[in-house]
Amino acid sequence: MTKRIFVTGDKHGTFVPIFGLAKKVALNSSDILIIAGDAGYIWNNEYKYKVESLEQIFPGVIAFVDGNHENHDLLNSFGVSEWNGGKVHKIGERLYHLMRGEIYCIYGNRFFTFGGARSVDKDRRIEGESWWNGEEPTFEELKYGEKNIIEHFNDIDYIITHETPLLAREHISRAKPIDDDYIIPKEFDEWYKIVLKSKSLKKWYFGHMHADKIITPKLRAIHNDILLLGDEKPIIWS
Asked: Rounded CA gap, 202 and 191, in Å?
């Protein structure tokens, strides 16, 4: 059975692109779909319906990093377990939340993952109902991620994040303001400088910006497109 990994961006609780993939490609139980944040399926106590629907549409594993538009309190209420060498929250039988700063070995490829971002619209949302304080990584999470980036930068094949290095924002028309005290993009710029020296890095995929665009040969925005890992030609596109 062919071992395939697909990657896509923000879904915000919708099924349409994933259903489109299932209609276009003969999927199997060994397939893995990675979502670069704002999956949005774990939003309230009705999440079990979303999980059941996802697992009916996609026969393999779905794994996602958290974005800013997630119910972080609910995500963090799940017990921590291990999947392919890294820590995860197991949400369903085949649905996993990939945690911040972890490294996973999947089908011979090593992935570094890091979720979280700051919501520019949080002033229009309700805390505990449509916005959760855990959206931004803690100092400890950033240090943990930095430690793994430095220690394993020559072993990492792919990076999956929600937020992006600042340099990418200059190439994306959908502007999102950056507050002076917002740390993550500054940290990501430093990480990007580190991994560019890597002998193994193939691609850094990020969501959040609602764009499908190649920024540099090793940095790509992903949103509606669904890509077969390592192939820049979308299987499903916006």
From this structure: 15
**Domain annotation covers residue 82:** yes
Domain extent, residue 91, equals 5-228
Residue closest to 149 by CA, chosen among 82, 195, 188? 195
Residue 155 in any domain: the answer is yes
Q: Which CATH number fits the domain that encloses residue 160?
A: 3.60.21
- How many structural domains does the chain have? 1
In this prediction, residue 238 carries a pLDDT of 59
Question: Does 59 score more than 70 pLDDT?
Answer: yes
- Tens of pLDDT, residue by residue over 143-157, are 999 999 999 989 999
Please write down the long-range contacts of 178-184, taking CB distance under 8 Å and 24 or more positions apart: 179/118, 182/118, 183/136, 183/142, 184/116, 184/117, 184/118, 184/136, 184/137, 184/142
pTM tops 0.85: yes
